[in-house]
Amino acid sequence: MSLKSVRASYGARAGEYIDAVGRIEHVAGPDLALIEEWASGIDGRVLDVGCGPGQWTDHLTRRGVDVEGIDPVPEFIEHARAAYPGARYRLGLAEDLGVENGSLGGVLAWYSLIHTDPELVSAPLDEFARSLGPGGGLAIGFFAGPRPEPFDHAVTTAYSWPIELLAASVEAAGFVVTRTEGRTDPGARPHGALLAVRSPSASRTAAVRNSASRARGAR
User: How confident is residue 12, by pLDDT bands cut at 50, 70 and 90?
Assistant: First the structure.
């Protein structure tokens, strides 16, 4: 699934998405508690990657977190800036966060990688590792499943992940996974959550892998 296709699909249905799941009131209680606890322990700036309509960025800003939301969908950024003027938003990609090496304290990627082909997930994970300082925190929300496979998401094709396999991919990018969770709410697909911290050796490894990936993309 190409970025252009995903961006166009969400842009065309931005209003519908916001009405359905785009407010903090839509977040399940356990997820809200998990991210609030995680964010309270972050030292430094947080990027809400794939912030969508901006509800998480605004919520964490109101709780005193130094957080900025980024998203590739212009319609979402426009909405976020209008609906939540007290928070910061800009266009951006999970694969290119636009920050200096080791400059972040945390990365929140809540259902932000669900449209990334499992074979390509190392690119955003390496970028997260590059951007986080040693000990920086990563929080990921995703669709859980018995195998990495595509399914017909309400907006566009998405992928589910076995929790253990995504955890292994996160650790391969230079993180130490500290917590995983899974549950199935009534009427919903299985949910997974993962927390991790960046290991001290991750930055150099991620930088090398990112450089190689970008070189291949430029050919």
Answer: confident
> Is residue 151 within 8 Å of 159, Cβ to Cβ?
yes
Residues 59-73 have pLDDT tens digits of: 999 999 999 999 999
Predicted structure pTM score: 0.89
Q: How many alpha carbons fall within 13 Å on the CB side of residue 18?
A: 18
pLDDT tens digits for range 97-139: 999 999 999 999 999 999 999 999 999 999 999 999 999 999 9
Distance CA 42, CA 101 (A): 17
CATH of domain 3-218: 3.40.50.150
